[in-house]
Design a protein that fits this description.
elongated, binds calcium ion, alpha+beta
Length: 339
């Protein structure tokens, strides 16, 4: 996370030049660098399926994870059967299609229903090598079920001019794939995260990648007979597996992306200008004001500028100025009088 040293906050707070100082900061940051946050949220209900830590990659559009109807690569087999992202990561690196990739775990490793896995990347929007996005994650427990995009051009994150497009996609249960590498017997000893002790255990399917036909019916001794996964039938009506988002990072949640935010750590809920700065940050109470009047003048000018920008109402501007005038900010406190 970026930090702003106190002295720069103070220089921003000088009413004589806060406007030009903020303008120059915003100008300096207007490049193609983009700090983006990838989030994978498990949308399954309680006692639904988990997801393994997700392999995510940004690339030039040439990285093809799989083709429906085709056979799985060894890397796809390892993630679909065991949640192992090592081999698919090596395959991705060998393609030379991009250099921004990661395995994104949930808060406790596997991503439980309701949990989110999230990771931030610093990308170059102007680079063709970071224009498209792909992901793969195993649906667990299962023999070889997974989610992911087989079309490398499906998720374009930056347009050809380098402008951020982002991504917000829901994966329905009907979009779960079967890797075709292992028979869906759901026998615990063969089924990862359901009793299987060693990787790549199970009966070879020698099949192709197809939409998954669903778990075995309740009563067959399979996954749905386990109380923990009683609601994991991802082909149930309206079942959703995941939501995948790629957004510009906004660490302080003020609506201004990190790369354009001149004031990190804005207090939650504070109104900010286009540079991500609140009035309390532009005119901080504890700055080294010459006197109370200088502090109040900073707030007056700032409130006026927020009002002009339509960020606050006339009534709010009035209340902000009154509160500043009533405050002790900028006053020299006499500490030697009492006791
Ligand atoms: Ca299978
Ligand atoms: Ca296998
Ligand atoms: Ca922000
Ligand atoms: Ca901010």
């Amino acid at each position: 996370m970026k930090t702003t040293p106190l002295h720069s906050l103070r220089s921003l707070s000088r009413w004589t030049r806060f406007g030009s100082a903020l303008a120059s900061v915003a100008f300096a940051l207007s490049t193609h660098a983009a700090t983006v946050t990838v989030t994978i949220e498990n949308l399954a209900p309680a006692n639904g399926n988990y997801l393994t830590p997700v392999f995510v990659a940004f690339h030039d559009g040439s990285y093809d994870t799989f083709n429906p109807g085709g056979t799985a690569s060894a890397g796809l087999e390892a993630i679909a059967e065991d949640g192992n992202t090592g081999p698919i990561t090596a395959e991705f690196m060998a393609t030379g299609a991009g250099s921004a990739y990661a395995t994104v775990p949930g808060p406790n490793g596997p991503i439980a229903p309701g949990d989110k896995a999230t990771l931030t990347f610093v990308l170059d929007g102007a680079s063709e090598a970071e224009r498209y996005f792909s992901f793969v994650s195993m649906v667990i427990p299962s023999n070889d079920a997974f989610i992911g995009n087989g079309n490398p051009l499906a998720f374009q994150i930056f347009d050809n001019a380098g402008n951020f497009l982002g991504l917000d996609r829901t994966v329905a249960g009907t979009m779960v794939w079967d890797a075709g590498t292992e028979v869906n017997d759901e026998v615990p000893a063969n089924t990862a995260f359901f009793g299987q002790a060693t990787p790549n255990t199970g009966v070879d399917q020698n099949g192709t990648i197809e939409f998954h036909a669903g778990f075995n019916l309740p009563g067959s001794g399979g996954i749905l007979d386990s109380a923990m996964f009683a609601a994991a039938d991802f082909l149930a009506p309206a079942y959703q597996v995941a939501r995948i988002t790629v957004v510009l990072a906004d660490s302080d949640g003020d609506g201004v992306p990190d790369d354009l935010d001149a004031c990190p750590d804005t207090a939650p809920g504070d109104i900010v200008n286009a540079d991500g700065c609140s009035i309390a940050q532009i005119c901080p109470c504890d700055a080294d004001w010459r006197n109370h009047g200088h502090y109040v003048r900073c707030v007056v000018l700032c409130a006026r500028s927020f009002l002009r920008a339509g960020l606050i109402t006339r009534q709010q501007a009035h209340e902000i100025v009154v509160a500043a005038a009533k405050s002790d900010c900028g006053k020299r406190v006499w500490k030697g009088w009492k006791h």
